[in-house]
Every structure is written in structure tokens, then in C-alpha cells.
């Protein structure tokens, strides 16, 4: 190959070029380079002929490409025959492929020519004349647009032009108009740093363009794209180039500024900071009109935008760009510019009525501080500085908490930065206000900012002398109601501990710290531990001394000492020292100098925490077990007389899984069986959980479960005696197991001759029931853990537990409105146990075949309940639903109190007891609803139960709303705690109801229980308006936040009856008409009232006199607005849902409730659909219904029996319908008649 090229080179330039293009380009490049650089001599004729031949060859090849392009343009007729579109399209594609094949070798030739041309231009010995080569390069440059589809050739030519410019060769100005856009576009497309470097290196070439000319638009667009390119913003040379672009043209400067402004709302911090640097660089470089545009157009707009921004986030983003100038204020001219732009607007904005503007202006002032005119006199500067301090002091007491937050943080920041130069009187005034007013502010954020500001201020040593006197005023914040404030003050104390001459105990008394350590949250307690550990468990003294100090702490405050030991390991205490302390604590507990109960609790609790930490290292296990012998443990249990102390021992035993604890079962069970009031006592719950851990670790769970079930059976018998609840039949195996229980229940309780003893010993039943509540809580809690759950579900007495809970739950449910001692926990445990039993059966059935059925029945006695092919879940559902319907029926008939008077009980009682009973009923119904929704979500509920579940949920909501209304009318004064709990139950009821709708809508698309879903969704809306009507706007606003995520499901349920109708068949509206006389949901009336209220406010006639004026219902209005937006987004759903409102209007029309008619029609025609023709075109179902309504409204409006007021309402309704009726229904009927 080299020989052929060498011989052609000696023949002629044309022969050399002809041979070169015939060889593979990539493989021949080294050979061509070698020949041109070494073979050609200064005396060779090629010096003059090769440039000319190159130019001719390039021109010839370009002519060929142009001819191909021209043939492409003329290949197809201007107007191809319509019948031959597809065939001509195929021919066109084939022709295009053919022409591409012809173009490819020409492009390869041009690549070779461009490469040879480049070698000639940059020959090592500069043998070729630049002026001779320029025409060939010019030819390639001028035709760059032809090579857009060939990226390699395009890049080769652009690189040649780029190097020509960098080499400052003759005619370089003529080689940039086409090449620069290519190079710039490549940097934006390939996104490589090297391309950005190339663009920056030839930036001066851009100054040759006339940016005022219209033909420059494409290049301007590429330049503006650089402003939003992440690569240009990240790289130093990219930012420099963007800044350079501001020098090119005033108009381009305006467009660049506009582009930067448009990115501010969406820009990240790094992006905005890059813009700040870019604009500052540009401002320094430009002069004249460009500088004026940056100063008075861009920067002035940013300052005003930072003050009047609609959101704090937007204001922050704008200030990030301004910081590009503010941080360079030492640069000449910057300080003057900032003052010139900001001073007129900042001071004025700090005193306006709008708190958001004041806050934004204050942020800006703090960034600019001190704002001063560098050319002003000293007196003027001092006066301006005094003005800024005055405004800052004023804003410390601003009425808006957000402004106060910024003011206190800003004040501390200014004092930190400028303490040495601020006059002492000014410091005193500011810091006094911070400590006297800000620390006692009603707003949590202000108090938190005060503490954080003081922490920041401590970073300036000059402030320490003053703060040493003032810091004790912050001490009360360690007991602040907000945990974030307490945590911040703990951080402040930790900082003081590291500063010489500061003593944290002078800020907060040590006893107060002990109190916080004992009772506060773990994160705060750990901070206090870190603060105290150098004093009470230091690492720099001997272990004996460290343990002695810790014992002193425990004796002084046992609870605080225990918490201290809990977090000591996390703060660096060694395991060895903890082990020594553990031994000392056990020894002190068993010492002859018997500590009091409180100290024993503290010692054992501390030992429990230490044991948990030490046991993580296996090397200490032997030492721990040696220290905790069986004799010691028994003695420790005898010493630990309180439940808390025994709980700590249980934790120690369960942590170490000790073997020698066989005699401690009774002691441990004492904690578990003493469970009266357990459900409401969090501390006691922790103690019982500790006992559960020990029971599990020792393998006593079956024995414990037998004891607990025994208590349940005793309470169940009491319910049978007192309320006549039927007892379930006992399984023989379960009865035998119960006889073996260490705390077995006498079999006499099962015989009827014990009824008299229960009737005469009411207190005994109350005690048994209270224990049963605690047992129910424990069963539910044990089911949460996988290990205890498996053991319980495998127990042979599970049937007994289920049966007992069933009886107790029935009594608790049916009679909770008559007895305030009845509790909802048995129902909750009953439903939870049912769910887990059902899941266990499902897993068992899936893992074993039918041949193992007998083994399953042996292992899980729960299967004995599956009679008549029914499941546990079916039985529980039937049982609870029957109980619920008895309650609902009695409530509806108002005979519930009478029916129970026969038992000697009555519904009468104090207001407090009525509140308690209502609260218990709401909790119970919520627990049942949760069970139904959970079972349905897990696909455990049979399909035929879905209608029952929907109906129950509907009746539940009706019951809740009715009682809420009755008690509101009776003006029962619920305590705030009761109101909050009832509100939580109402939120749960709504959420569970909406979730049930969601599941049913997903699983029953074909055969949806339409009536149940329609009834439930209406009751859910009724609940929403009832909360606002009876609990007030505060609760309603919070309730709406719960409702919002479920709005799409509510909308789908509203339209469920009509969404499944593919066509508006004839029977659809006849059915609706037949049902039109039924009562409307109450939320329809509220919706109508809201619409009428808006009509009245808009100045329409007073249509609303007959309807009781509603409350404002502001929260419900917001929900309706959300619904309207969602309905407008889908015409099919809008059509199905809108029919409901039109049917409601028709029903109200028949009952002559014209207020509701007008309100609903106004909602549909104004809020949801509108009266434009296009909006109604696809609403087939609504149009069919609207025709009937319009005709009836027209008839009613002419009725002489109606009052003038009613007729006016009807005329208003007719006016709403008439545009739609004329556009669609009337015209359709007229055309139909004409056709006939």
C-alpha cells in the first residue's frame, strides 16, 4: 500500500489523491501522514500542484453531493396521486436508501481530502502556502451544511477550521461562520468537557458576528442553550464562556438575563450559585449598555423579586444568585452598586403590612449587612447603621412568628460577625431583647431559633463574658414543652462543657438535669448522659472511683441513674467498667443495708440496662451467668417488691436466657396476672412485656397462655351470668389441658348453680372483667411478635381462648352503652386473633395435602370450630354483624334502654358516664370496621360477604353520625381528650370505609354490589359534613386532610351505578325516577346550601329563606373544589357522577324543595360542567336525565300554586338548563320530528 502511494505521489498530485481515496481511510492514515511529512521536498512540484488538486477534487465531490441533493428534491412530484400514496412512499424510501449508498463513498473521499488538507496546512516544515490551501478549506467550510448527516466528516472539517483559527492563519475570519455553530452544537450534544474547552479557546471568534442581524438567530439559540447546560455551569471554562457571552450584544445580554431568571424557580443550589458567579464575571467584563442592562434590568429585578417573592423558597433561590455579588463586595464598585440598588426598596419593605414581604426584606438585609454607601461621610454611615439596628430590634418583636424567627437568628449572626465593631449599647439592647423576650416567646420555632442563635454566637470568644451572665436565663428552656427546644438546649450545654470557664450546671441546675434525664425522650436523655458522663462515670479515673460516682448518681436520683446507665455505653463507657458496675449494683441490691423501694428499682433498672449492653459481647457471658446464680435470682426477686423492679429482673433473665430460673415462674406470672388497668398504663405495659420476654426465654409460654385463658373463661362465665350471653361448647382436649394449668379455674364455674354467686358478688365480676381486659391486651400484643404468635396459634387451648373472647366481646359490644366499665379491648383481641387464625389455616391448607387433615386437627384445635363448612372468619363476621345489627336496630327503634331495664340496668347516668359509654361504642365499632377492612384487603372475606360488609359500614356511619348529632344537640361537654379520641375514631372510620370501597371497586368490577357502594359513599360524605357541623372547622380542616387521598375512590363509588352502563338504556332513568322520591343524602342539602349562599353573595335574589342557613362549611367547600377539578378531567366519570346530582335535583323537584333543586343544578352547570356546547357533547347520560328535569322545571314554574319566591327559584334553575337544552335536546327532538 505504501509503495503504491509513494509511486503515485511521485507521478502527480491528481494520481496521489486518486490512489489515496481508493484505500481504507483508517488504515491508510499513518501512511499518508508519513509520505506528506517526509517524502515531499521543498523543490517538489507538489508544493504548488497538490493544493490546487485538492481544491479541484473537493469541489468536484461537493458538486456530486449537491447533484444528489437536487435529485432528491425533484424525485417525487409536487402533488402525488392520492391513490398511490403508500406505493410512492415505499418507492421514496427505496430511492432514499439508494441515494444514501451513492453518497457514502463521496463522503469518504472528502474525509481523505480533509485529512490531507490538514496535514498540508500544519506541515512540520511549513512547506505549503496557506494562501494556496485556503480555497480548498474555504470550499469545505462553506458547504458544511451538506455534511450534517455525516458526523465524522463534519467533525473533521470543523476541527480543521478551529485549528486554522487557533493558528492565526490567513483568512481565519472566513472560516468561522459555519464551523463555530458546529463546534458549539457538538459541545451541547456530546456533553464532554474537552468540547467546552474548545469553545472557550475560540471565544474571540464570536465577536465577529453581528448579533443584531436576523440571520444569527440559530447561533443565538445555541448560545442561550449554554446558559441552561449543566456541563457549562459545572466547569470553570464553561462558566467563563457564558459570562463572556454577555459582552457580545445588548440584545443577547437581555435574552441571557431572561433565561437565567426563568431558571430561578427550578434551579438547584449549585446551579443558582453558578449563575451568581457568571453574572458577576459578566458585570466586571462588560461596559456601556450591557453593564446598564445587568445593573438596572437584571440585578434590580432580582432585588425586588427577592423581597416580593410569592414563596420563601423562591426568595431563597433569588438571594443565592445575589450572593454572587454580595460575597464579592470588596471588589471595587460592588458595594456602591449594592447600596444603589437595594437601599431604596429594602428599608421601605421592612415596614410594610405584608408579613411575607417583611420576612423576605429582612433576609435580604441580613445578607447585605452592613448596608452602607462607601462614598458617604462617617456621620451618614453611622446614621444608616443605627437605622438598620433599630429596624432589627423592632422586628425582634414583630407580630409574625416567622419574622421573629429570622430576626433572632439574624441578630445573633450579626453579633457573631461584628461584635468587635458594634457599639456596646447596641449590643446590650439587642441581646437583652433576645434573652428576655425571645426565650419566652409563644412560638416554638422562635424559642428554638433563640437557642440555635446563642450557640452560633458562642463561636465568637468576645461574647463570652456577656453570655456568662445571661445564659442562666435560658435554663428554663430545658423543660420546654417542645422536644426540639429541649434537645437544642442540651446541645448548648454540651457546647458550654467544652468552653473554658463555662459551667453547664450554672445554666441548668443539676437536679433539673436529673429530672430531664429520668423522664425525657431517649435522644435528649442521651445528650444529658453525654453531658454528665465526665462527672459521674469518667474514663480518666480508676474503675472503682468511676463506679463510686455512678452509684452516687443512682442513690441521688434512682430513675435518672438508670437512664444514665442505659446510654453510658453509647457515650464511650468501656465494657469492663460496666461489668464491674453491674456486680456492684447487684451487690448493693442484696446488701444487708436494705435500700428503699425506689432505690432498689433504680439499682435493678440500671443493672438491666448494663446487662443488655454487656451481653452484646460474648466474652462476658460467663461472668454474667456466674454473677446471676439461681440463689441470687431468687433472692433478688424476693427483694424486688415492686412491679418495675421485677420487670428489670425479667429483662436480665431474658437477655441472658438463664437456665436456673425454674422456681421463678410464679413471681413472673405475678407481673402478668396483675393486669387490671393495663390497657391505659404505658409503664405497666412495658413491665408486662418484660415478663413476656422472660416467659418466652424460659419456654413457659404454653403455661402462661393457659393461665391467661383461664382468666378469660372466668370473665366469660361472668358475662353469661350477668348478661345472659350463651357460652360456647368446650372442646374436650382444651378442658383437659385447662385442668393441668398451674392456676386452673374451678370447673364449678361451668355449672348453673354458680349463677347465684355471680349475681350476689358483682364486685368479683368487675374484678374478673378488668383482668380480662388486661389479658385481651396481652393476647393482642403477643400476636404482634412472630415467635409468640406461632406458639399461641399452635396451642391446644386456642379454641378456649377464642370462645371466651367471643363471649366477652359480645357482652362488651351489646352493653357498652349501659355500663361504663365495659371496654373495647376484648373485641379488638377477638378480631385480631380471628385474622391470625384464618391466615394460619390458609397457610396450613396450602402446605399440607388432605391426607394430613387429622394431624392438622390434632395440632390446631381451632379447626374444631369449622362446622358446616364454615371458617373461623365467617363465624366471627356473622357473630359481630349480628351483634352490630342488634345495636343499630335498638338505636333506630329507641328501645335499647327499655330492653335492658329488665336486667336491672338502665341508660341513665351522669353526663360523664354517657360520654364514656358513647366513646366506648365508637371505639368498638371502629375496631370491627378495621377487622372487616383488613380481612377484605387480605382476600379472606368470601365474596358473598361484601354486600354485608358494605351495609354494616354504612349503618355504622349512620349510627355514629346520629349519636354525634344527638350529643351535640344535648350540649354534652366532652373533655378535650375525649374529643380528640372520638375524632381519631371518626378519622379511622372514614379511612376504613374508604379503603373498603377501594378494595370492593377493584375486586368486583363485573358484579359490583352497587346499592351497598352507593349507600356507603353517601354516608362517608355525610360524615365529612357532620364533623364540620358538630365539631367545628378546626377538626374539619384536619379531617379533610385525611379525606383528600381518597377523593378519587369516592368519586368512582359515586358513579359506580352508572359507570358499568355502556349505553344509556331506556330503563336507566326510569329506575332513577322511581327512586327519586327517596330521601336525599344530607350532604346534598349542604352542597345546595353552599351554592345558594354563593348565589346570594353574588347579588342574586334571596332564594334561601326557606332553607336553614348553614354554617360556613369552609373545609367542605375545599373538598368540593377538589372534586370538581377531578371530575372535569374525565368525561366518562363526570357523566356517571353527574347523573347522581341531576337525580337528586329531580327528587327535590318532586318534593317541592326548590332550594335544593337550584343549588344542585347550579353546582352541575356552573362548577362542574358549564353551559358551553362542547362541554356537554360527550355527557350522554347526563343529557338524557337533563331533558326530563328541564320539562318538569318548566311545568313547575308555571304552577299557580307555587309562591312567587318558589317560581323565581324555578326560573333561575330553568335559565341554567336552557342553553344546554336548546343546544342538544331541543334540536335533537326537532330533527327527529322533521324526519318523521
- What's the β-strand tally? 0
Helix count from the secondary structure assignment: 61
Instruction: Summarize the main sheet.
Output: none
How far do the termini sit from each other?
92 Å
- Beta-strand content estimate: under 5%
Query: Which whole number gives the mean pLDDT?
Result: 82
Structural class: mainly alpha
Computed CA radius of gyration, to the nearest angstrom? 43 Å
Q: How would the global form be characterised?
A: extended
Ranges where pLDDT stays below 50 over 5 or more residues in a row are 73-90, 731-759, 848-870, 895-908, 1063-1077, 1100-1110
- The residue fraction in helices comes out at over 70%
Describe this structure as you would to a colleague.
By secondary structure, this protein is mostly helical. It has 61 helices and no strands. Helix 18 runs parallel beside helix 20 and helix 45 runs antiparallel to helix 47. The longest helix is centred in the first third of the chain and has 37 residues. About 9% of the residues have low confidence.
Distinctive features:
1236 residues; mainly alpha; ARM-like; ARM-type_fold
Short structural summary:
By secondary structure, this protein is mainly α. The chain is built from 61 helices and no strands.
List the helices and strands and how they pair.
Blueprint: H1 2-11, H2 13-22, H3 25-38, H4 46-74, H5 85-121, H6 130-142, H7 151-166, H8 179-190, H9 193-201, H10 217-227, H11 230-234, H12 236-245, H13 250-263, H14 269-285, H15 289-308, H16 312-326, H17 334-349, H18 355-368, H19 378-396, H20 401-418, H21 424-436, H22 444-457, H23 464-470, H24 483-497, H25 504-507, H26 510-519, H27 522-536, H28 543-556, H29 558-568, H30 575-589, H31 597-614, H32 621-627, H33 630-639, H34 643-656, H35 665-673, H36 682-698, H37 701-723, H38 732-739, H39 755-760, H40 762-782, H41 786-793, H42 798-814, H43 825-847, H44 853-859, H45 872-893, H46 896-901, H47 911-937, H48 946-969, H49 976-1003, H50 1010-1031, H51 1033-1043, H52 1047-1054, H53 1056-1059, H54 1066-1074, H55 1082-1097, H56 1114-1128, H57 1131-1150, H58 1154-1168, H59 1173-1176, H60 1180-1197, H61 1204-1235
Helix pairs in contact: 1-2, 1-3, 2-5, 3-5, 4-5, 4-6, 5-6, 5-7, 7-8, 8-9, 8-10, 9-12, 12-14, 13-15, 14-15, 14-16, 15-16, 15-17, 15-18, 16-18, 17-18, 18-20, 19-20, 19-21, 20-21, 20-22, 22-24, 24-27, 26-27, 26-29, 27-29, 28-29, 28-30, 29-31, 30-31, 31-34, 34-36, 35-36, 37-40, 37-42, ...
Amino acid at each position: 500500500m505504501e509503495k503504491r502511494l509513494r509511486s503515485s505521489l511521485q507521478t502527480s498530485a491528481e494520481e496521489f489523491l486518486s490512489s489515496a481515496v481508493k484505500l481504507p481511510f483508517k488504515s491508510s492514515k499513518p501512511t499518508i501522514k508519513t509520505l506528506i511529512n517526509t517524502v515531499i521536498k521543498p523543490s517538489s512540484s507538489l508544493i504548488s500542484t497538490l493544493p490546487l488538486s485538492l481544491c479541484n477534487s473537493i469541489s468536484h465531490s461537493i458538486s456530486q453531493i449537491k447533484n444528489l441533493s437536487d435529485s432528491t428534491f425533484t424525485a417525487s412530484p409536487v402533488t402525488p396521486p392520492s391513490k398511490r400514496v403508500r406505493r410512492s412512499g415505499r418507492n421514496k424510501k427505496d430511492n432514499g436508501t439508494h441515494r444514501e449508498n451513492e453518497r457514502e463513498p463521496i463522503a469518504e473521499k472528502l474525509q481523505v481530502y480533509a485529512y490531507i488538507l490538514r496535514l498540508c496546512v500544519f506541515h512540520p516544515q511549513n512547506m505549503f502556502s496557506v494562501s494556496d490551501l485556503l480555497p480548498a478549506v474555504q470550499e469545505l467550510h462553506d458547504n458544511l451544511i451538506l455534511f450534517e448527516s455525516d458526523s465524522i466528516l463534519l467533525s473533521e472539517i470543523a476541527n480543521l477550521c478551529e485549528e486554522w483559527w487557533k493558528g492565526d492563519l490567513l483568512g481565519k475570519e472566513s472560516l468561522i461562520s459555519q464551523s463555530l455553530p458546529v463546534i458549539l452544537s457538538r459541545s451541547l450534544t456530546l456533553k464532554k468537557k474537552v468540547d467546552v474547552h474548545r469553545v472557550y479557546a475560540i471565544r474571540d471568534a464570536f465577536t465577529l458576528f453581528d448579533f443584531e442581524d436576523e440571520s444569527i438567530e440559530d447561533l443565538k439559540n445555541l448560545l442561550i442553550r449554554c446558559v441552561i447546560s449543566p456541563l457549562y455551569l459545572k466547569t470553570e471554562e464553561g462558566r467563563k464562556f457564558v459570562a463572556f457571552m454577555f459582552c457580545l450584544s445588548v440584545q443577547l445580554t437581555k435574552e441571557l438575563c431572561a433565561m437565567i431568571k426563568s431558571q430561578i424557580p427550578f434551579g438547584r443550589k449549585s446551579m443558582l450559585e453558578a449563575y451568581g458567579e457568571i453574572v458577576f464575571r459578566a458585570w466586571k467584563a462588560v461596559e456601556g449598555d450591557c453593564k446598564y442592562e445587568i445593573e438596572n434590568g437584571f440585578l434590580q429585578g432580582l432585588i425586588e423579586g427577592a423581597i416580593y417573592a410569592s414563596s420563601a423558597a423562591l426568595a431563597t433561590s433569588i438571594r443565592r444568585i445575589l450572593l454572587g455579588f454580595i460575597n464579592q463586595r470588596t471588589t471595587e464598585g460592588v458595594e456602591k452598586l449594592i447600596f444603589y440598588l437595594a437601599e431604596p426598596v429594602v428599608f421601605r419593605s421592612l415596614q410594610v403590612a405584608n408579613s411575607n414581604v417583611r420576612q423576605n426584606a429582612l433576609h435580604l438585609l441580613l445578607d447585605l449587612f452592613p448596608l452602607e454607601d462607601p462614598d458617604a461621610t462617617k456621620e451618614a454611615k453611622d446614621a444608616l447603621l443605627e437605622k438598620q439596628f433599630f429596624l432589627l430590634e423592632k422586628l425582634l418583636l414583630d407580630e409574625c412568628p416567622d419574622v421573629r424567627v429570622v430576626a433572632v437568628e439574624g441578630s445573633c449572626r450579626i453579633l457573631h460577625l461584628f461584635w468587635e465593631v458594634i457599639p456596646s449599647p447596641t449590643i446590650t439592647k439587642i441581646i437583652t431583647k433576645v434573652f428576655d423576650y425571645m426565650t419566652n416567646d409563644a412560638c416554638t420555632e422562635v424559642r428554638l431559633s433563640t437557642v440555635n442563635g446563642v450557640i452560633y454566637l458562642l463561636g465568637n470568644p468576645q461574647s463570652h463574658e456577656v453570655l456568662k451572665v445571661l445564659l442562666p436565663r435560658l435554663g428554663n428552656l430545658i423543660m420546654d414543652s417542645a422536644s426540639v427546644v429541649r434537645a437544642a438546649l442540651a446541645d448548648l450545654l454540651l457546647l458550654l462543657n467544652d468552653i473554658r470557664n463555662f459551667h453547664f450546671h450554672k445554666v441548668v441546675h443539676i437536679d433539673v438535669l436529673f429530672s430531664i434525664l429520668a423522664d425525657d425522650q431517649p435522644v435528649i436523655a442521651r445528650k444529658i448522659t453525654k453531658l454528665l458522663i465526665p462527672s459521674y462515670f469518667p474514663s480518666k479515673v480508676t474503675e472503682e472511683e468511676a463506679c463510686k460516682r455512678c452509684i452516687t448518681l443512682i442513690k441521688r436520683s434512682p430513675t435518672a441513674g438508670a437512664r444514665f446507665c442505659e446510654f453510658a455505653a453509647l457515650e464511650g463507657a468501656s465494657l469492663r467498667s460496666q461489668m464491674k458496675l453491674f456486680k456492684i449494683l447487684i451487690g448493693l441490691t442484696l446488701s444487708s443495708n436494705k435500700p428503699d423501694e425506689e432505690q432498689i428499682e433504680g439499682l435493678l433498672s440500671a443493672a438491666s440496662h448494663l446487662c443488655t449492653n454487656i451481653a452484646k459481647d460474648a466474652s462476658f457471658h460467663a461472668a454474667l451467668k456466674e454473677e446471676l446464680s439461681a440463689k441470687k435470682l431468687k433472692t433478688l426477686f424476693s427483694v424486688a417488691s415492686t412491679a418495675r423492679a421485677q420487670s428489670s429482673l425479667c429483662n436480665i433473665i431474658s437477655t441472658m436466657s438463664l437456665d436456673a430460673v425454674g422456681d421463678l415462674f410464679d413471681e413472673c406470672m405475678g407481673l402478668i396476672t396483675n393486669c387490671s388497668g393495663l390497657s391505659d398504663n404505658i409503664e405497666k405495659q412495658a413491665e408486662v412485656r418484660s415478663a413476656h420476654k422472660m416467659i418466652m426465654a424460659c419456654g413457659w409460654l404454653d403455661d402462661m397462655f393457659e393461665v391467661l385463658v383461664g382468666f378469660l373463661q372466668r370473665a366469660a362465665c361472668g358475662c353469661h351470668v350477668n348478661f345472659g350471653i350463651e357460652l360456647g361448647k368446650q372442646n374436650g382436649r382444651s378442658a383437659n389441658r385447662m385442668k393441668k394449668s398451674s392456676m386452673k379455674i374451678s370447673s364449678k364455674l361451668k355449672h348453673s348453680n354458680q349463677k347465684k354467686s355471680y349475681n350476689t358478688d358483682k364486685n368479683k365480676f368487675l374484678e374478673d372483667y378488668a383482668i380480662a381486659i388486661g389479658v385481651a391486651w396481652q393476647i393482642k400484643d403477643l400476636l404482634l411478635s412472630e415467635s409468640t404468635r406461632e406458639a399461641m396459634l399452635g396451642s391446644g387451648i386456642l379454641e378456649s381462648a377464642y370462645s371466651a373472647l367471643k363471649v366477652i366481646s359480645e357482652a362488651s359490644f351489646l352493653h357498652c352503652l349501659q355500663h361504663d366499665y365495659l371496654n373495647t379491648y376484648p373485641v379488638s383481641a377477638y378480631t385480631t386473633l380471628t385474622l391470625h387464625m384464618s391466615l394460619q389455616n390458609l397457610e396450613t391448607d396450602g402446605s399440607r395435602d388432605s391426607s394430613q387433615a387429622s394431624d392438622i386437627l390434632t395440632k390446631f384445635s381451632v379447626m374444631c370450630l369449622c362446622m358446616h363448612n364454615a371458617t373461623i372468619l365467617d363465624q366471627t363476621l356473622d357473630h359481630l354483624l349480628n351483634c352490630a345489627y342488634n345495636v343499630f336496630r335498638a338505636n333506630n327503634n329507641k328501645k335499647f334502654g327499655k330492653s335492658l331495664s329488665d336486667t336491672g340496668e338502665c341508660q341513665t347516668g351522669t353526663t360523664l358516664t354517657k360520654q364514656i359509654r358513647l366513646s366506648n361504642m365508637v371505639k368498638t365499632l371502629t375496631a370491627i370496621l378495621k377487622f372487616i377492612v383488613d380481612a377484605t384487603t387480605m382476600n379472606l372475606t368470601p365474596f358473598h360477604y361484601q354486600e354485608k360488609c358494605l351495609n354494616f359500614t354504612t349503618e355504622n356511619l349512620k349510627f355514629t353520625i346520629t349519636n354525634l348529632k344527638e350529643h351535640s344537640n344535648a350540649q354534652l361537654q366532652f373533655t378535650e381528650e375525649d374529643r380528640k379520641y372520638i375524632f381519631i375514631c371518626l378519622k379511622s372510620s372514614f379511612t376504613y370505609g374508604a379503603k373498603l370501597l377501594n378494595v370492593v371497586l377493584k375486586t368486583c368490577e363485573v358484579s359490583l354490589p352497587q346499592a351497598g357502594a352507593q349507600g356507603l359513599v353517601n354516608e362517608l360524605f355525610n360524615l365529612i359534613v357532620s364533623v364540620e357541623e358538630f365539631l367545628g372547622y378546626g377538626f374539619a380542616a384536619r379531617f379533610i386532610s385525611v379525606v383528600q387521598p381518597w377523593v378519587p375512590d369516592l368519586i368512582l363509588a359515586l358513579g359506580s351505578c352508572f359507570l358499568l352502563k355502556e349505553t344509556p338504556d331506556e330503563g336507566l332513568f326510569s329506575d332513577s325516577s322511581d327512586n327519586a322520591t327517596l330521601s336525599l343524602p344530607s350532604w346534598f342539602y349542604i352542597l345546595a346550601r353552599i351554592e345558594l349562599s354563593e348565589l346570594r353573595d353574588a347579588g342574586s335574589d334571596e332564594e334561601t329563606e326557606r332553607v336553614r342557613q348553614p354554617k360556613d362549611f369552609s373545609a367542605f367547600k375545599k373538598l368540593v373544589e377538589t372534586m370538581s377539578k377531578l371530575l372535569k378531567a374525565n368525561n366518562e366519570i363526570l357523566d356517571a357522577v353527574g347523573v347522581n346530582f341531576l337525580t337528586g335535583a329531580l327528587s327535590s323537584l318532586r318534593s317541592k324543595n326548590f332550594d335544593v333543586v337550584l343549588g344542585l343544578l347550579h353546582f352541575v352547570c356552573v362548577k362542574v360542567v358549564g353551559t358551553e356546547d362542547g362541554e356537554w357533547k360527550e355527557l350522554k347520560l347526563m343529557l338524557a336525565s337533563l331533558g326530563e328535569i328541564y320539562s318538569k322545571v318548566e311545568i313547575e314554574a308555571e304552577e299557580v300554586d307555587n309562591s312567587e319566591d318558589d317560581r323565581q327559584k324555578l326560573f333561575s334553575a330553568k335559565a341554567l338548563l336552557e342553553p344546554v337544552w336548546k343546544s342538544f335536546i331541543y334540536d335533537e327532538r326537532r330533527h327527529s320530528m322533521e324526519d318523521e
